[in-house]
Fold these 2 entries.
Entry 1:
Amino acid sequence: MKKVTILDLVAAKNDSATLTMTTAYDATMARIVDDAGVDCILVGDSLGMVVGGQDNTLEVTVEHVAYHCRAVRRGAPRPFLIADLPFMSYQTSVEEAVRNAGRLVQEGRAEAVKLEGGIAVVDQVAAIVAAGIPVCGHLGLTPQSVNAFGGFKVQGRSSTAARQILDDAQALVQAGVFMIVLEGMPRELAAQVTAEISVPTIGIGAGVNCDGQVLVCTDLLGMNPDFSPRFVRQFVDGYGLLRGAMAEYVAAVKDRSFPATEESFSTPGLSVRSETTSEHRVEEG
Ligand code: KIV
């Protein structure tokens, strides 16, 4: 399969091709994602929740994202690779934003960065784009604002809030984003944003009328039995499958059916005792 570039993603808007994106955080998962034909990998700050077991994304740092992004790149050379700018890595100043975006490209080997917010971050977007780094926007239920929202709640439900999201999307496009993630919003609003802007939209909990879809890899693989929100489809019972395999491993070790003879090494005639004894004699002598 051919390497995916920003040109393919941007062209998808005019071609009406539906884009696929998922998260990944390590080389093993990234290889599966690449092999399955996914267009775009996001090393999201969901990293903190999925890998770190945290309650939200706020503890994630640039160092964390860069480390995981580099691992993902090793496992998946083909998909377009986007790294999340984590909380407080771009909100404080335009300079910080450009420096941290640059780190994710240099240290993480990302091809683009994603940041959350609309009109409030257009200066950062424009400066990062001017530095030659493509930027993906993120509107709606932006997880870095979880405390301001009072929880992970669907956004844009009133006409004023919906209007604000549309204005934010247009401002982001003006500032130079090449794509926008629309998360946790009514599908009618996501459809309208998608129809009115010139760059592709990628939905998560935003209905089918976006230019593409993204899901967290462990959600779509059914790895977390305690997390099954409305917008997630579990394409496999990954938790049940892997738990079953682990339980079989435990049983096989305990009943000594693992490792079998063909799963171990043999040197016929090897006498450990006599060699050890002679080494001993030399040392003692
Ligand atoms: O961090 C993340 O995984 C994300 C996606 C949910 C879009 O931002």
Entry 2:
Amino acid sequence: MKQTKITKIVAQEILDSRGNPTIETTIWAGAISGSASVPSGASTGTHEAVELRDGDKRRYLGLGVRKACKNVTGTIFHAVKGMDCRDQQKIDQAMLALDGTINKSKLGANAILSVSLAAMRLSAEMQQKPLYKTIAQHYNYKPRALPVPLFNVINGGVHADSGLDIQEYFLIPQRGTFAERLRQGSEVYHTLKKILASDGYSVGLGDEGGFAPHLGANEQALKYLSRAIKQAGYKVKTDFRLGIDAAASEFFNSEREVYKMKASRLNYKPASIYKLYQKWVKDYGLQIIEDGCAEEDFLGWQLLTKHLGKQTLLVGDDLFVTDTARIQNGVINGIANAALIKVNQIGTLTETIAAIKMAQSNNYEIVISHRSGETTDSFIADLAVAVNAKYIKAGAPARGERLAKYNRLVEIEQNL
Ligand code: PGA
Ligand code: ZN
């Protein structure tokens, strides 16, 4: 008989793709172990679970995570020691009870998530099964297909100094296997680089591996993507469609109730912002708009959904923060038609799956997402396959921490 009870936990401070500290946790049951590391966002929603940082300015400008590591190896280990590593709900529940806050501010969502994900990895190791199969079986899913990648190839907002208000511009390959879509995305990415460089723009990268050119107007980025698609030998709208993550909470002034778009020097009210997107849907065939409105702008969201919800995927990120109750609230109020899923927004795998099931049972599409600050952990690739997510968003088809996810999906495709 294998030892399945948790016997040891180690947590350490490592660095994420922005060079900021984050946690990596390893859990043992006897001689078998599972590890996971935690990502970190920059354009975080107000209602996200709390990332515990040391605040000690003498180390990492206050961003150290030693307290969170200590919570893992101290309080949390104490509570989960001896539990069966395959009993994910029980482990997550124990941590929730121990934390006791609504936003995980006591132990830190980073501490809790590292244990939650590492426990599932350990469970997969224990059963000698791929992670996606272990997750799927545990939560009663039958993986059917690979998710469609959303390649974020132009970065703006708080992810780059491009001056663009829109945070992300995605390429969405429409046809082929996952591996073929990765190739197509890569070809357009490199073509885009050539075009930008020949037009005299910088081809330096933003946080998610996309280019960060000072284009002057938000719409310019959509024009460049369309050009790059054609120049790479593909057809706009049939081979590739486009998407954006406006991350509109970042440019919404909630006191004045106005969206201030600096790059285009235009202001929009909650009652009219949908018209801007309506134009882009018409002119560029946008397939996906994430966070088109700010997290607290319910009027804007309702109008956006009413006018564009039939033909466009309207994804709630800051709006829903992977929270079951918030997604349910969206369903009831006719807001958005898809949910972005980020494991560290909520902090445990059990709650993440509950949020996914809430969305799916109401016919809201799922987009599994990375964060702008990432590690080479590819957990979300397996998660996306396990729950039959229609889409995955993991940045540009470049940089190790982004490719860890895409390359893992290529590997899973071989086996599925
Ligand atoms: P974040 O950005 O990880 O910085 O929050 C990603 C997103 O907004 O989707
Ligand atoms: Zn977003």
